[in-house]
Amino acid sequence: MSENVSDEFIGALLILIGSIISVISAIGIIRFPDVYSRSHAGTKSATLAVLLTLTGCFLYFWFTESFISVRLLLGIVFVFLTAPVSGHLIIRAAYRAKVKMAEVTVEDELKEVLHEEDYTNSP
Amino acid sequence: MINLMLITALTLFGVAILIALVRIILGPSLPDRVIALDMIGVNLLSGIAIISVLYQTKAFLEAILILGILAFISTIAFSKYLERGVIIERKRKR
């Protein structure tokens, strides 16, 4: 398309770095011992991977066809806002459903607070 | 060169989806599976972005936004089901 190769190279490099970070996050989700540390791997680095990939795609379309995609920008903002929120909600539900922690866990500070206010499951 | 980099990135995203699929199959609890499903949705989203770069088309960019919204809503619904037992609550009788 364009005669300048180095502009497209930046976008493709960002996409490649994002895919490598995604594989690292997948290794974290298979290797960690309990659900809390698994969500730590699966929420943070997967979000970073998808943000890098979408930014690379946006830069690629900007440099090659000089097309600024508002939909892609909206997708970046939306993923950046909602991925930590969904991770927080599912881990909160897992703690309330009393999923076991790993054996190496040292301290559980939330337990005393929750037993203090006598959380009941039915509304 | 750039084509090779894009195809390598697509393959790496496929590897990540396969590993998350292993976690869905042997995950001991339901939140494990929901987290892995959320991660698969997010990785599919970036796979669509790479495919739209490979095909040099701008027709798939709406699908990225829609898939992000659907992954968020499904995770919220699952977490509400796990915490309360219902997803949409009834009006309280008085």
From TrEMBL, chain B:
It is a multi-pass membrane protein. Its main location: membrane. The keyword Transmembrane applies. The keyword Membrane applies. It comes from Virgibacillus alimentarius. This is Multicomponent Na+:H+ antiporter subunit F. It holds the Pfam family MrpF_PhaF. Belongs to the CPA3 antiporters (TC 2.A.63) subunit F family. Keywords: Antiport, Cell membrane, Ion transport, Membrane, Transmembrane, Transmembrane helix, Transport. The chain crosses the membrane at residues 6-26, 35-55, 61-82.
